[in-house]
């Protein structure tokens, strides 16, 4: 048995903001993927994955919802038969490792599922997001459902607000010098503690004001520029966003990257932002000259995401 592949995702813009109803833009990232499998000679990782699927089965069997019905008997039988999730998506890196797993389980076991091939109306997208939010909450305590949605559909998704999503197109990549890239912090991040820090910060009126004004304004401008291919304007807006994140989301940025982050803003060679909830994993970068940035950040591992 080998199930279909589900890819990683990158939330280009909107981290934390989407929890509080501002815009976001998520794109599939095909360098990493996962699939459900069975093996005659499972590895230690595969056996652990099977155990985790058993816990997930238990969680799904206790879900009280009218949104979705799963074929739980089949799911249980497959787990007993040694099914596991074989994934190259790094865990705790902000690129949707649990999202791909959730998407694969929905795809295989949901009855009367919404498929990628049908006309994806706003209502269908919203229903899928709600289902995935319920499912992924098993992993994070609280989930927007966006990671599994992106992985399941494998198309860019524009989040206008909590209740308003649309599939969107992004400009095709150009052979330019500029790039969006990932910077590997080499630290595993945990989503739940980061979300807890954010929720505590939300009790502060000044933080809420910053989020609804500065953060949302720059995020919306970045999304608009990216979708329309306005590179010059995009980099200016990413710089503003990078400053706001450094000033207000320090606990989510690993300590050793505070200076690297600041240097990018001061030199204008590159700009960094959070990729997912932060605390480790990947940091997202934007640059006008990727070769130059690779040289400046030669002590770090960089991965190319998108060229412009």
UniProtKB/TrEMBL annotation:
Keywords: Kinase, Transferase. InterPro entries: GHMP_kinase_C_sf (IPR036554), HddA/FKP (IPR001174), Ribosomal_Su5_D2-typ_SF (IPR020568), Ribsml_uS5_D2-typ_fold_subgr (IPR014721). The keyword Cell cycle does not apply. GO terms for molecular function: ATP binding; kinase activity. It comes from the Bacteria. This is Mevalonate kinase. It comes from Lutibacter oricola. The lineage of its organism: Bacteria, Pseudomonadati, Bacteroidota, Flavobacteriia, Flavobacteriales.
